[in-house]
Each structure stands twice: as C-alpha cells, then as structure tokens.
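Please decode residue identities from the backbone states below.
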C-alpha cells in the first residue's frame, strides 16, 4: 500500500480501516523511522496529492517531532537529530518548498512542520541558515502564499522557542514582521500573518523596545493595524496591544496619551464582538498591571525601599471615558448565553471588577448613579446590569466607603431574589455571595440574616446556575461568620448562624440528592456543607453528627450499586459523588476529632470497600486516602487496628509513580500514621523507609513528590526517636546529596524547585534532630552537624530569602544547640556566619523573629 492510500485510510469513516491504517503508520515510524519521515514528506510536497491527505502528512510529520510531555519530546528530538543529514535535508527542503505552494492551506501545513523541526534543531545550534532563508521568502513580492506561510512559520518558531535562542536575530525577524504588518502591504492575509508573528515575537524584541525610534515605529504599525479594513487584522492588532501592555507597561505613557486611550475606548464599542473583546481585555490588562504595581509599592514602603517600577495611573486618568462604556456593555447580555460563552457583557463586568481594584474608592462615584437609575428598570437587561455593576465594585474600594451603600442595598437585593427574570436572580445571588465574602460586617445578624438565609435557601429550588450561586453565598456566609466567632478562644460566644444550621444543612443535602450536576450545583452544595461543618460551634455538633450519618448511608448505597454501573458517564458520576462524600467525611472527622471514634469502624470499612471498588486510576483513591489521613489524625493511637488491612492499598498507591497526586497523598499518609501512633509506628518504619527510598530512585516519579518523601523522613524520625538509628546514616546521606543541588538564577522554575527542595530537607533534618533530642542516642547527630549547618548557611545566604526557609533554618540552629547544651558542638555554633545571622536586624515576620530569638538563646547556653 502506498503512502497516499495509507494516509487516506487514516481519515476513513470506517473505524476498522482507520485503525488498521493508523497501526501500520505507527509500526512504520517505529521500525523504519527515516523511511517513514521521507514518505510523509514526499506526500506533503506533492502538488498532485489531495489537500486533506497532504494535511494528514503534515500533521503526522509535526506529531513525530513535537510532544507535550517533556520526556516524549526529548525522545522525539533525539530520534530526529540522529537521522542521516541527507534525510533531514530532504525533509527540510520539501517543507520549505511547500511553504510557497499554490494552495495556501498546504503552506500552512508546511509552516507547522518547519517550525517543529526548528524547535528541535535551533536550540542545538543546527539549521542556522533557516532564519535567513525565511527572511528571504518574506521579501518575495511575487508569491503572496509564500509570504503568508513564512510569516506563520516565523510566528510558530517565536512561540515554540525560548527568546534567548532567537535574540541575536531579533532585529532581522522584527524588520520582516513589521514590513508585512505595515498599512502599505496590499495583502490582508500577509498583514494578518505578520501581526500574529509580531504577537509571538514580542517577548524577545525587548532590546528593540528599549530604543525609542524602533519602539515608536512598532507602536505606529500596530496602532494603524487596529484601523485596518480587515476585522481579523484589527483583532490581531488589539491582541498585540494587550501583550505589549503586559510586557512593556513602563514604556506606554506617551502612546497612551497620543493614541491608545482613544483607540481602545472606540474599540470597546466596535460592532464586531471579537474586536470589542480585545479592546476590553486591553483595559483589564492595564488594571492587572496597576494592581500589581500598587502591591509592589506597598511592599517596598513596608521595607523602606523604592519600588523598581511605579504605576502611571492610566486607569484612574481614563476613568471618565472607560466607565460609561463598560456600564453600557453590561446591558448587552444575551438571553440564552451559555455559562462558558465569553461575550462583551461578561468581559465588561470583569474589566469593571479589575478597574475597582486598580482605582479603589474612585470607582464608586461614577458607578452608583448607573446602579440607582437602573436597578428598578422595567427592562431586565438594565436591572441585571445594575446588580452586576454593584457586585463588580465590591472589592477594591475601602469597606468604610462601601458599607453604607451595601446597608442601603441589602434589603432590595434580598427582595430581587424573587425577580421574574432568571438572569437577574442569578446575578443577584452572585452579588449577595460577594457581599458575604468581602463585606460580612455589613450583614447585621438581627436585621439581615433571617431574610438573607431564607432567600438563599429558597433559591436552592431554582435553576442550576442560581442554585450554584446560592450555595456559594451560603458557603461564604458560613466561612466569614465562622472566622468572627471562635469558640476555642471564647466558649461563651454564640454563632448567629447556629439556629439556621439544621434547615440550611437539610436544604443543602436535598440539593445533593440530584442525579445531575449541571452548572456544578451539586458540587457547590457539597462545598457549602463542608463550610458549615468547618464553622460548626459546640451547640450545633448534633447537626454535624446527623449529617455524617446521612453521608455514610449514601456511600453505602453507592457501593451497593457499583456493579450495576456500565457507561463512562455513570462511572464518572459515581466517582465524583464518592469524592464529594469522602470530602465531607474528611472535614467532619477533623471537626469532631476523637468524637468520631464511635463511627470509626464504619468509616474505615467503607473506605476499604471504596478503595477496592475504585480501581487504581480513579481520583476517588485520593479522596479516600485523605479521609483515612483525617481519621488517623483524629483517633491517634486508636487508629492502630486499621493499619494492617489498609497497608496493602497504601503500598500499591506508593508504587503508582506515574500518578504524582495519588503518590503525594500516599506519602503524606505515612507521615499521618507516624504522627498518630508515635513510637508504636516503629514496627512499620522499616517497610515505610524501604518503599520511600525506592521511590526516590524512580526515574518516573515527579520530582515534587520526592520533596514530600524527604520531609516524611522527618515525620518518621520524630515519631520513633532513637528507633530511627538503623536508617539514620542512609537518610542523612540522601539528604546531603539532595541539599547539594544549587539553583540557576536564570532558570526560574529551578529556583522555585530548589527552594521547595531545601524546605523539604530542612523539615527532614528538624524531625530527625528533634526525634533524637534529649535521648541517649543524641550523639549520633554529631558527625552530621557540619553537613546540616552547611545547608542552613547556603539557605540564609540567598539574596531572595523565603520566610519559611529562614524560620526552618533558625529553628534547626536552635534545635542543634538544644541537643548539645554542654559545648559539644561549640566550635560550629561560634562560626561567624551563625553569630552574625542571630544578631541580624533585618525585617522579618513576628513568628520568624521569635524563632531566631529562641535559637540565639539556645546557642548562648550551648556556647557558654
């Protein structure tokens, strides 16, 4: 069978033909990769081959070169780079030739192939003449298709490759792209491809943006493109402006004043929604930048420093022009809009919310007249827009400014939960939810609480979206009021929600009986139940106990029908329900503590049955393990009888290296069991340590799980104290090797990873040191003091010092000193860097300072 026929069969409507062709192609790619790639390339370049088959060839070539997973991408890259130069050259020439195909679509397929090869070769210093070749193509005035496909290729390359690899060619790339985007270019297709390429190249032309003349020209071309006759080019130009504002905010003052204010305000009113959405996004981006800059300025002021960059207050300056447009856009709702359908009304509400965050109190005055003038309007569009405007400005302004307005509006909003229009009720429920979340003090228990809860509970019988927002509002109410009433600090306090617990829980449980989860309303109800469990005060504990019994009955029922489930949708629904039920059990267990003991056998029996039913890949396993961890923490030593039947499932999860989340939860459970049983867990320590050390050696296991493992060594050591001796030498060796990893300041991901890694190692050291402290085996630590302090010194020497690392470092110095109070490690503790660190005057959070002072006192005693 020839290549064309084989590729055609991969697109066959007949499933067997399709599967057979796909398998043959996969076999060819494995058994004879060079021939496979040449075969695909010959189909792509052949102008006589039908277009859909050339597309299939181009897609297969691209998929043989690029993958989302890093490990597979490395495999594909290595395989390509190992090809004979003649083979690679032939495939590259075919792809470059296809860029100029009379068929524009074929050129597009080829552009993806060229960029996929470039993404492999350019970082390796190969195909260095590619950019020069592409720039030559862009300057070919005779072949429009070639120019379009080449600009698409440049855009794809800019998107796929790290900026530093292309930065040396930035000038040439930018020249070609801007040439194609300028208003004198006769072809709208070329302009569009150039604008998209410019969007993808914006990050690595930073040096060009530093030069005023070049920056002016780039901005001129982009601003002119927003006025292009082609709407697609206009959309692309506004997308560029959004990205430019995000990347080069500090360079935008002149352009805002001269062009961008006007262009974007007019753009937001554009009849084509695609243009309007990007113009709105521009102002959302401005606000996001200015919110961030305001926060940075506050942080700098707290530390007596000057911020690197200051806000230009573009949003505040443009407020009189922007607000009326955004408010007008709020009235453009679509009656039958889908929840996930993004339109100008939703975008306008998001922008208004961000604007409130950026300009704070200044947003109130221009918005309130609109609310007052429309909240009682006959047209539902205006009523809904008024409520949406009110809900959108509740975060940003000073609560003291908003409080009188909310007090005045609350009775009306509660009444609007009975509005005749579904969308008005939906937005009202959302707004009430925001008030409960951000301005809980405005809700007076004796005035508002009863009608508010009544309206929200009534809303639980409405349409799915309204139910979701009512659940969210009820959840916020419980969380925020719960934070105000802490029975542990003052048992005499009465939570005003207490008398509503029974009816609210009953209503939420009724919602969760639904077989549907449209708009996530059932999940939202379970989340609200969890919030009421967490906020429960002693007077409502009977309600919580009754709730968990109901939940356990539901789990039992679901387990009884497990074998009757056939379809994928039913299976997913079953998994989701069991996950929600497990989550409630977890939180009830944490709330009741040892009070859960009478239900312990029943809960653990259900969890074991659930794990058996769920299968290895189910997300339910994570939820079941979290519930087990909560029960373990609540029962402590009384959890002992459940460990033996549970261990086989724990070890199976620990060996699921490909499932990082499940493995992390399983590792955490070892820590839970060790803490719960204390020195009684020594009988399990050997098998725990064996499986954890095996996991550290796995090439498949996510590196972040390995950090959790290191930290868990500390949990085991702390629990069993001197009984950790058989594992001490090996553990300390592992920790020392892991601690030797140094961050590369240019690799932000690695910097973050090393910080987390060091935190895990310090936690492990803390557990080991504390476990041996004040025992007869404490001297086992002496030989390891230098390596422990070496890591502490490197952590404290970092320019960007994380508070968590500082606190752990000071704590560890103090713990070591406390272990040897009679001068056994005096020489180490009197090193200059330790003396200097413990006397530092640097600003730090109170808890960290307290830890440092304690460490200083321990060191003083240990060095007398």
């Amino acid at each position: 069978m020839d290549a064309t026929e084989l590729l055609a069969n991969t697109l066959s409507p007949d499933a067997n033909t399709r599967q057979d062709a796909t398998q043959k192609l996969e076999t060819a790619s494995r058994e004879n990769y060079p021939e496979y790639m040449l075969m695909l390339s010959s189909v792509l370049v052949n102008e006589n081959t039908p277009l859909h088959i050339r597309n299939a060839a181009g897609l297969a070539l691209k998929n043989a070169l690029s993958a989302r997973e890093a490990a597979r991408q490395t495999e594909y890259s290595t395989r390509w780079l190992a090809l004979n130069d003649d083979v690679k050259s032939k495939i590259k020439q075919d792809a470059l030739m296809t860029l100029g195909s009379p068929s524009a679509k074929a050129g597009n397929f080829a552009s993806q192939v060229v960029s996929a090869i470039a993404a492999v070769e350019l970082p390796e210093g190969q195909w260095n003449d590619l950019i020069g070749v592409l720039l030559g193509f862009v300057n070919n005035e005779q072949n429009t298709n070639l120019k379009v496909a080449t600009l698409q290729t440049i855009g794809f390359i800019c998107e796929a490759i790290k900026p530093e690899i292309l930065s040396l060619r930035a000038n040439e790339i930018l020249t070609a792209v801007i040439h194609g985007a300028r208003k004198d270019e006769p072809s709208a297709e070329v302009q569009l491809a150039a604008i998209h390429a410019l969007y993808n190249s914006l990050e690595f032309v930073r040096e060009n943006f530093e030069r005023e003349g070049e920056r002016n020209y780039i901005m001129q071309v982009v601003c002119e493109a927003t006025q292009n006759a082609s709407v697609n080019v206009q959309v692309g130009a506004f997308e560029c402006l959004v990205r430019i504002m995000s990347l080069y905010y500090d360079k935008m003052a002149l352009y805002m004043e001269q062009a961008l204010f006007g262009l974007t305000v007019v753009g937001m009113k554009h009849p084509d929604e695609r243009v309007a959405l990007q113009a709105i996004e521009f102002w959302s981006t401005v606000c996001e930048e200015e919110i961030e800059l305001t926060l940075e300025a506050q942080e700098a002021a707290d530390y007596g420093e000057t911020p690197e960059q200051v806000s230009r207050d573009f949003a505040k300056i443009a407020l009189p022009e922007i607000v009326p447009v955004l408010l007008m856009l709020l009235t453009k709702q679509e009656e039958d809009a889908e929840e996930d359908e993004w339109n100008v009304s939703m975008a306008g509400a998001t922008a208004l919310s961000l604007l409130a965050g950026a300009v704070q109190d200044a947003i109130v005055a221009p918005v309130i007249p609109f609310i007052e003038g429309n909240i009682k309007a006959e047209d539902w569009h205006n009523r809904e827009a008024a409520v949406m405007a009110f809900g959108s400005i509740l975060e940003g302004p000073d609560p003291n400014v908003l409080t009188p307005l909310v007090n005045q509006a609350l009775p009306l909003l509660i009444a609007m939960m009975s509005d005749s229009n579904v969308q008005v009720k939906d937005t009202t429920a959302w707004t009430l939810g925001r008030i409960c979340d951000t301005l809980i003090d405005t809700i007076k228990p004796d005035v508002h609480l009863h009608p508010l809860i009544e309206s929200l509970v009534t809303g639980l019988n409405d349409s799915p979206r309204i139910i979701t927002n009512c659940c969210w509002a009820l959840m916020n109410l419980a969380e925020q009021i719960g934070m105000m009433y802490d029975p542990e600090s003052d048992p005499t306090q009465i939570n005003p929600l207490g008398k509503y617990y029974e009816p609210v829980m009953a209503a939420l449980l009724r919602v969760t009986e639904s077989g549907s989860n449209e708009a996530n309303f059932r999940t939202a109800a379970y989340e609200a139940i969890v919030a009421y469990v967490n906020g429960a005060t002693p007077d409502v504990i009977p309600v919580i106990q009754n709730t968990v019994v109901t939940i356990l009955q539901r789990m039992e029922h679901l387990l009884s029908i497990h074998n009757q489930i056939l379809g994928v949708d039913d299976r997913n629904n079953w998994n989701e329900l069991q996950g929600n039920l497990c989550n409630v059990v977890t939180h009830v267990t944490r709330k009741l503590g040892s009070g859960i003991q009478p239900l312990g056998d029943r809960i653990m029996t259900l969890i074991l049955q659930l794990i058996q039913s769920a299968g290895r890949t189910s997300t339910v396993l994570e939820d079941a393990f979290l519930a087990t961890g909560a029960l373990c923490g609540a029962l402590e030593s009384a959890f002992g009888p459940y460990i033996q039947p549970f261990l086989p499932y724990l070890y199976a999860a620990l060996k699921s290296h490909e499932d990082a989340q499940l493995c992390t939860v399983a590792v955490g459970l070892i820590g839970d069991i060790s803490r719960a049983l204390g020195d009684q867990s020594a009988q399990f320590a050997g098998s725990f340590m064996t499986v954890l050390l095996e996991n550290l050696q796995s090439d498949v296991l996510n590196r972040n799980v390995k950090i959790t493992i290191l930290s868990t060594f500390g949990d085991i050591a702390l629990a069993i104290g001197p009984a950790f001796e058989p594992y001490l030498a090996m553990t300390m060796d592992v920790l020392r090797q892991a601690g030797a990893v140094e961050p590369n300041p240019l690799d932000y991901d690695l910097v973050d990873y090393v910080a987390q890694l060091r935190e895990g190692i310090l936690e492990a050291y803390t557990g080991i040191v504390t476990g041996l402290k004040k025992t007869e085996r404490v001297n086992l630590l002496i030989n390891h003091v230098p390596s422990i302090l070496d890591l502490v010194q490197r952590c404290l020497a970092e320019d960007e010092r994380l508070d968590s690392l500082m606190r752990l470092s000071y704590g560890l110095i103090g713990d070591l000193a406390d272990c040897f109070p009679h001068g056994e490690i005096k020489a180490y503790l009197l090193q200059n860097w330790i003396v200097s660190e413990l006397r530092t005057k640097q600003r730090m959070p109170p808890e960290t300072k307290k830890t440092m002072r304690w460490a200083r006192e321990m060191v003083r005693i240990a060095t007398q």
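Observation: The chain has a mean pLDDT of 92.
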